[in-house]
Amino acid sequence: MIEINYNPNEMLICTASRLMSDNSTAFIGTGIPMLAASLAQKMHAPNLMTIFEFGGMGAILDDLPVAVGGRRSFHKALSALGILDVIEMAGRGFIEYGFLGGAQIDPYGNLNSTVIGDFYKPKVRLPGSGGGNDVGSHCWQTIAIMRHDKRRFIEKLDFMTTPGYLSGPGAREAAGLPPGTGPFRVVTNLALLGYHPESKRMMLLATQPGVSVEQVLENTGFELLLADEIIENPQPSAQELRILREEVDKEKFYI
Amino acid sequence: MIEINYNPNEMLICTASRLMSDNSTAFIGTGIPMLAASLAQKMHAPNLMTIFEFGGMGAILDDLPVAVGGRRSFHKALSALGILDVIEMAGRGFIEYGFLGGAQIDPYGNLNSTVIGDFYKPKVRLPGSGGGNDVGSHCWQTIAIMRHDKRRFIEKLDFMTTPGYLSGPGAREAAGLPPGTGPFRVVTNLALLGYHPESKRMMLLATQPGVSVEQVLENTGFELLLADEIIENPQPSAQELRILREEVDKEKFYI
Amino acid sequence: MNILEEGIGELLQPPDIDAFREWNRKKNKSLTDKRMTEAEAVRRYIHSGDYIGTELYGSVRCPMSIVNEIVRQDIKNLRVVGQGVYETDILLAAGLVKEMDFTYIGLELYGISHVIRREIDSGRLGKIVEWSNGSLVWRFKAAAMGVPFIPVRSMLGTDTFKYSSAKLVECPYTGVPIALVPALILDVGIIHVHRADQYGNCQIDGISGFAYELSRASKTLIVSAEEIIPTAEIRRHPDRTIIPYYLVDAVVHAPYGSHPGEMCYLYERDEPHIQHWAEVSKTPEATQEYLDTYIYDIEDHQEYLALIGEERLKYLQDIVPDRG
Amino acid sequence: MNILEEGIGELLQPPDIDAFREWNRKKNKSLTDKRMTEAEAVRRYIHSGDYIGTELYGSVRCPMSIVNEIVRQDIKNLRVVGQGVYETDILLAAGLVKEMDFTYIGLELYGISHVIRREIDSGRLGKIVEWSNGSLVWRFKAAAMGVPFIPVRSMLGTDTFKYSSAKLVECPYTGVPIALVPALILDVGIIHVHRADQYGNCQIDGISGFAYELSRASKTLIVSAEEIIPTAEIRRHPDRTIIPYYLVDAVVHAPYGSHPGEMCYLYERDEPHIQHWAEVSKTPEATQEYLDTYIYDIEDHQEYLALIGEERLKYLQDIVPDRG
Questions:
Q1: Mutate to test the interface with D, among B54, B94, B141, B177 (most CBs of D within 10 A)
Q2: How many angstroms separate the CA of residue D79 from the nearest CA in chain B?
Q3: Vertex D38 angle, CA D34 and D41, to 5°
Q4: pTM score > 0.80 for this model?
Q5: B83-125 residue pLDDT tens
Q6: Contact (CB, 8 A) for A79 and A72
Q7: What domains, with CATH codes, occur in chain B?
Q8: Is the domain D3-318 a CATH 3.40.1080.10 member?
Q9: Where along chain C do its domains lie?
Q10: Residue C61 contacts residue C257 (beta carbons within 8 Å)
Q11: Radius of gyration of chain D (CA)
Q12: Is residue C146 less than 8 Å (CB to CB) from chain A?
């Protein structure tokens, strides 16, 4: 076996990228999702339909977008209208995957990107919802991309910006959110996580290469369910790494 | 005095045209309003901002529009988007005049363009509201253009398609219609009519040349108020007639 | 929500946004060649009893080649959202329309529709629910947004409201009465455009009428286009794509597809033809003869164009004026 | 209307549609030359305490020449609708913002805003009301429609709802809970476009972000444009006029008006400049120095461009790739 050198960030991007299937529609937020989408288009999903918040739809990600409204987000796109068109597209159920980030996540996949500490006297004022809440409300399956530690994976959020499963089974529907929607995966530097089909609580599905289940549990601030079989994610392939480094982020914005 | 030959239709068009002031915004329906708007642009109101229902705004009426969505309705226009943009423009209070037609009108300026007879078993099925109700609801001042006879000017409509003053003073506001809006003038082959500022009932302001007040009253199926001073409208000028015949309706669609 | 008043019109198509979402989720998102003939598009996608809408404004950009094919295939019991002119008249004349959400059916400068009265009298057109044009486009917009209703200040205080299925409520922010209209989801939308690629990415020149909203309110969308263009051309001007491919199920190449209506910048209205219809539609016999000549006895749109004649079509192009 | 739940956020700008209508009625509808300098536009139209919004998406098509002039004229106590990046950061850094309807303030890939925390701590930024991007554009849309509210399925069940001024009601058609958000009417909207004529008819290339809705939700609208074009050119392509003249109060010619942001098809982002701001905005001292250098010590946008330098600006043009 050939030893391959890569950093945890690269592993994270590859894991997210592998979740993006060809011919599916995916709402792409700033940062890692952009890298993952570009990698996916160049690897296994040439017709991944990327949707960027301010109007770009079906872009070819020759150059890595650095802003969700930049021209790279609608480069050679199929359609480039406004934010309302994108939000409405999600509202009508046309967007399968929504890739999201956040500063905190709870066992039900709810996300905080608004404040750390008290709302009126915050320790840290975060960027806010932006399109996050809309994506979490309307896309069929949301995928959160997070750094994995105890301050971020917590039992109770300081502020619930974006809905996951709210307080548990049935809560989304009771709140009026579209039936059948909700969190699908969480991708971190340590693991790939999903949700228990009944309890809707977060569940460990796979660890990143070289990471133990114990490490994941230690870095999670709430009780994590374990899948019956927990696999180890495959390492980034040499091809993934080459494309990621030489083609996706050739300007070295992220990596 | 030179004798000028013209038909009642031409008189009607000239009367409507004179109501269109330069630099005002006017919603133009099919038929007479198109002729009047074209004449106004060529006479006294070169910057009359014509608004056509399906998106055309600020067109130069070189050729007479024959359909509210035809290319003549946005020929050399300033803007040509969709119907929603136009309806919203009216909704936000940007359209001063709305020119409307109808098969029946009542003393409060309410209009019927839906059915003659019973709704479910109509004697005549008319074209329906189209944009009429929207114009009557949202434009500041509506101007109805009608043929004047007892079957059309009636006490009680078979169907109220488009709101005038509804049942009288305060009724529009009570119904939720925007304050300050309502019928302004009625232009007919016999007369120019307005509304009493308090009672909101229709009032005779002027007769067409050669028409007596009695003739107007005889052809009106309800009690008509009379203005303190009832003038006679000036005849079409030679210039108006020439432009109308040679430039406005050069294809002889209407005249 | 406290309802002050309700229209008595039947809700012909319930605003079931969640079912609409499920439907849209299953729609094909891949770039698939969707080109097909009128005959195939209509056979596959329009069925007896469907709730349909043709997008147009006056006799402009009418999807006539598709409408004629519906008549040819004799698809009955249609429920139709009726902001229509010549094309809806044709469907009515063929006796295919059972129910209507209605705002305007007429022949513009040629006045009222003659066939609608016959269809009401015959009992074939059994239900008419009233709306205004603004209310209809807002109903489409609500569906496009993915919400079950939208507030409007049209129809208030009138019989148009009474015979609609709108509801009157008190605005929770301002306290004034306001109408709510239900989202309108079409089984099939039909739109004629200037250009489309094989996947259904569409461009329209000039005013866009109801196109944006109706395309997004349709479960199935049939597009006919004057011209099929390469996708590379779409990608060079993505800000011109008013209808993106994922909304579209069938792409039909239809030059002069709006005839006898106009297509701005390409060809003008065929005024004598429309006048002819206004005249013959006055009697059932002449109507039938018209339908025979221009639809039933004709194989397809190509044969229709041959019947109209190259010279006439060329003339309609030639009289298009310069943009200014 | 039966309200199930209400957000506790204050309604910073009430949805008074009737007052908005009265205002719009009085707006000038004639074709008037509205060209003026940044200084004049800001002096005439933006006042202490005004509720303003800058239209942009990320560091793209930002109306920076106008924002810089607001800072130069030191117009305080602004109430701001905040979907913003660099430009809102600048207003906050200059201590001009008192209240915000908030959805996103950050520096995109450079992370959180450093100045907002200082403004909250200082007490100058006294009120923040939460929303999502979707809710904000729908709030603009409601104002554009001329209705006091609009239903949305965003924010439901979250603290974003709780700290907003949305209301939860039961849908009268489907019975499910749905959020209503109030129309958002701006005192002043500020938009940067590719091209405008002297009257304010505007064209935008590429995605249009919030432009359609925000322009129609503004009582006063300041437009800056890369290029001023003849009205005849507008009239040749009226379907490109996303913002018609009647909405616009001031037209400012501003080449490179979005710098350091990008303007698609014209010039790219000035990445080092944005990085520089992300760095210096970490401390009050360096922030002040930045504001001095690029705004306070500068006369106008021409001088700003001279400071950035012709070579740099040329480079940002040169790296724009082909459309494909």
A1: B94
A2: 23
A3: 50
A4: yes
A5: 999 999 999 999 999 999 999 999 999 999 999 999 999 999 9
A6: no
A7: 8-248 (3.40.1080.10)
A8: yes
A9: 3-318
A10: no
A11: 20
A12: yes
